Amino acid sequence: MSVKTLEIDGRMLTGRTGETVFAVAWDHGIQIPRLCHVGGLSDVGACRLCLVEIEGRKRLQASCLTLIEEGMVVKTATPKLKSHRKLIVELLLAERNHVCSVCVMNGECELQDLAASHGVDHVRLRYQFPSLPVDTSHERFGIDHNRCILCTRCVRVCDEVEGAHTWDVCGRGTASHIISDLGEPWGESDTCTSCGKCVQVCPTGALFSKGKTVAEMRKDRGFLKYIVTAREKKQWIG
Amino acid sequence: MTASPPAATVKDNREKLLERAMSRYQYSGDALIEVLHTAQELYGFLPPALLKTIAHKLRLPASRVLGVASFYHFFSLQPKAAHTFVVCLGTACYVAGALGLVEALDRSGAKPGSSGAKNDVSVQTARCIGACGLAPALIYDGVVHARATPQLIKAELERIGVK
């Protein structure tokens, strides 16, 4: 497999042809922020947090969807990118009702961590305060649409790994929301296998196990790599 | 699951026509939008049971079928009212007083964007229908009216028996 050399944040790095800028950066310890990417699932470029500057390209590029090229010069943390990322986090926080103090994922939430690492001490935008439901009809899990950031990790893990495709996105624009099957309550879904993969990959407290109270929910981030490696390579690396 | 497709009668061949449309595309999942178009033409709207049938026949997940149907404004998930007004709110129509038309329709009790069957009138707004020369344009029951006026709307509403 041919190898390509590129520069990321002033470091000369190599990656295999077909790898993304995002993957090569992370392989070398350059942690580009992300919310919609999860190792083992396809990338969709939904969260826009992994935007990078590439020399010779006018627009910012989503690094999770940009393939590496020979001689590429990439910058991942310029002041411009940092300010955009901060605004994206603020937009996400303002869009729905992210009330950390009463959230099951308080302290373990990827959105909360990003807000902290980007210095989001307040939100400069007007909160939308949409009226959104919480569906706890499933026997073991619940979905709180107030915490959902529409990263579609749950949709992809259900489709690509579990194969059930119970979840999808319904509507458009600010009315977009996650649905199970034809919009029935989760507990009445005929396709859901109750495997819980969606719960584990959800970056926020939108999907949670029942019985967890504030800040008690912990998610297993390693299981997906284990399953995907097992499926693709027939290797069971614990 | 509340609404279901209108009950089939002996003379109802809509099911057959939908089946024919799907078979024309070899029941390919890629033809979902085309099939939804046909279904909407035949039934007027897309009730959950119909979406489920389509999902099953095209071998697609139900959630994706609803996702697609709900994304496009063209598809309606609720039964349409007997009379439909679409007010164009494109720049030309807006400048020419389209908001006056929306206001006149407000009196019918139907809110823009709703296909609610109050008074059997549904009111919708469109970004631009590409008829800027006719501004303000109004589509009333599928017919485009050029230089529509609140008076015209009032007269039409009276004619169909709304206050």
CATH class of the largest domain in chain A: Alpha Beta
Mean of residue pLDDT values of chain B:
86
At the fourth level of CATH, the homologous superfamily of the largest domain in chain B is Glutaredoxin
Number of strands of chain A: 10
* Proper CATH architecture of the largest domain in chain B: 3-Layer(aba) Sandwich
Strand order of the largest sheet of chain B: 2-1-3-4
Relative helix content of chain A: 10-25%
CATH architecture of the largest domain in chain A: 2-Layer Sandwich
Folded structure, characterized:
The complex is a heterodimer of chains A (238) and B (163). Chain A is an alpha+beta fold. In chain A, a hairpin with a 6-residue loop joins β8 (167-170) and β9. Chain A has helices spanning 21-27, 79-95, 110-117, 153-162, 197-201, 223-233, and strands at residues 3-8, 11-16, 51-54, 61-62, 73-75, 134-135, 141-144, 167-170, 177-180, 207-209. Chain A is 24% helix and 16% strand. Chain B has 163 residues and is an alpha+beta fold. Chain B folds into two domains: 14-71, Arc Repressor Mutant, subunit A (Orthogonal Bundle); 83-159, Glutaredoxin, CATH 3.40.30. Helices cover 41% and strands 11% of the residues of chain B. In chain B, a hairpin with a 2-residue loop joins β3 and β4. In chain B, α1 packs antiparallel against α2, α3 crosses α4 (62-71) and α6 (98-106) packs parallel to α7 (150-159). The longest helix of chain B is centred in the first third of the chain and has 12 residues, at 32-43. Chain B is elongated and about 50 Å long. The A-B interface holds A 159, 164-172, 179-184, 191 and B 1, 48, 51-52, 61-67, 70-71.
Provide a short characterization of the protein structure.
Chain A has helices spanning 21-27, 79-95, 110-117, 153-162, 197-201, 223-233, and strands spanning 3-8, 11-16, 51-54, 61-62, 73-75, 134-135, 141-144, 167-170, 177-180, 207-209. Chain A has 238 residues and is of the alpha+beta class. Chain A has 2 domains: 3-77, Ubiquitin-like (UB roll); 101-233, 2-Layer Sandwich (Alpha-Beta Plaits), CATH 3.30.70.
